[in-house]
Amino acid sequence: MRAVTMPERSEYVPFHDAYMAAVAGREVVPLLGAQLGVIDSFLSLSPEELERRYAPGKWSVREVIGHLIDSERVLSYRLLCFARGEGASLPGYDESRYADAAGADSRPVEGLVAELRVVRQSTIALIDSLDEAALMRMGTANGWRISTRAMVYIIAGHFEHHLNVLRERYTVRLT
Fold first, then answer.
1. Which domains does the chain have, with CATH numbers?
2. DSSP summary character for residue 90
3. Rounded to an integer, what distance in angstroms lies between the CA atom of residue 161 and that of residue 142?
4. Closest to 147 (Cα-Cα) out of 53, 16, 44
5. Mean pLDDT over residues 90-112, rounded?
6. pTM of the full structure
7. What is the rounded CA–CA span in Å between residue 129 and residue 161?
8. CA separation for the pair 78, 40 (Å, rounded)
9. What is the DSSP letter of 58?
10. Cα(76)–Cα(139) distance, rounded to whole angstroms?
């Protein structure tokens, strides 16, 4: 696996600070691989746990899994664009609209887990294909300047953030 060093503070915006903090001090690419095991632990959740919402109007656990799928796809696309030197500014995305349209609550957890695994494996393969110059390139998404290597950390940190929310607010047990 490729080693990706922690980005400098100038390579991302304050919005991403919590994601960076969630993975600080860890080897990010091995962490992305280890998160595959956590993805598999969604299969052990009961139907009641998968339907759980920690408050009215909040996503169910299934919807959080769907959000992880959509977000990783969007973030990995940004990573690809930045790595390839895309000069155009990439749009933001409305995670709530995506979640509403995804229909994750009506999907079997096995399908959600299989899809999330494939998306993560694709992300890791993309990262492994990049050279140092590609990792250092900058791009713009949602009006923010971000480096490719910062995107790698954002992907891992976003996932860790949601795992923490699932454990603390939804009180689901994940490995």
1. 9-168 (1.20.120.450)
2. B
3. 20
4. 16
5. 97
6. 0.96
7. 26
8. 26
9. S
10. 13
Q: Angle between the 61-83 and 95-102 helix axes, to the nearest 10 degrees?
A: 120
Say which residue the tokens 């598999």 belong to.
40
Residue 175, pLDDT score: 85
The three-state secondary structure class of 81 is: helix
Q: Both tokens of residue 136?
A: 């250092």
Q: Which two structure tokens, joined as six digits, stand for 123? A: 């992300």
CB 127 within 8 Å of CB 149: no
- DSSP codes of every residue in 126-154: HHHT--HHHHH-EEEETTEEEEHHHHHHH
- 136 half-sphere exposure, CB direction, 13 A CA radius: 3
Residue length of the chain: 175
